Amino acid sequence: MTSILYGRPPAVFDPPADATQTSPLIPGSADLAEMAAASLDAATILAPPGVLERRYVLALALKALKPGGRLDVMAPKLKGGSRLGKELRELGLEPVESAKAHHRRCELVRPETVTGLDDAIEAGTARLVPGLDAWSQPGVFGWDRVDGGTALLAANLPPLKGAGADLGCGFGALSTVALASPAVTSLDMIDLDRRAVECARRNVEDPRARLHWADARTVDLTDLNFVVMNPPFHDGGAEDKALGQAFIRKAAAMLKKGGVLWMVANRHLPYEAELNAAFARVRPVADQGGYKVFEALK
Ligand SMILES: C[S@@+](CC[C@H](N)C(=O)[O-])C[C@H]1O[C@@H](n2cnc3c(N)ncnc32)[C@H](O)[C@@H]1O
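Above: the input record for the complex with S-adenosylmethionine. Below: its predicted structure, written as tokens.
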């Protein structure tokens, strides 16, 4: 039996242990878009929260399923779950709906033909976003705009030099600004999201850039001159300040003595104690529009 999993559904849904993982947020996983049409017996999907992203994933899974194959999809009620049934019925499908552990679940057997899949795939695929002038994809962080925090950090960033890293690089907005300095010799760009890394690869065509589809907390880099970051503050949809704090500790570990961290964060997030513990000198540089920018010297 050939089956895929997308994401990590809660154990109460009994996700298959032997299925191929296809979430772009799990480094090393397979890409659902690369699965051959009508090749799968079953797909179990923890549906993502964004509408375009969710419809894209469901359409890819339905395309990859054989007629007669089983789709089992669930999402937290307040993060798309309440719309799942409607979205599947819009594709002409008849899911059996149930509720469990604050999730809505839809199960169905794929009929011989399903219409509307190509439109959903096209709407969710990576593209050159007009106005942004960068490649991006629904589901990537702030996919069709430059984040306000990123813009504030970019406006305050001095010309950088030497070897650096961008932790949680997204589609590459901050990296592009960092690489504008000719004194930068290399830039390691790291993101957990395969889609972000693939878009960043297209946006930053620079021989000094190296892309990593990885968890920044586990990447082995040392002796850097600088780190730039707009760290994530959500893990699996819930606000998680520990993630940003871990990024601060990791940035400090990557830097050489005298190296500098430039970071931006939402104003309400408590990062000062972590910065002061990990760095010799911390300077608040800007506080505007709900964001704060820090320069921290190791
Ligand atoms: C606030 S966004 C910033 C994106 C980009 N640097 C920008 O300024 O637009 C944080 C990024 O961190 C990524 N991310 C989340 N957890 C991560 C992890 N453990 N390791 C690496 N990247 C992660 C997210 O996919 C997202 O692209």
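Notes for the reader.
The chain has two domains: 3-124, 127-297.
The CA atoms of residues 132 and 145 lie 6 Å apart.
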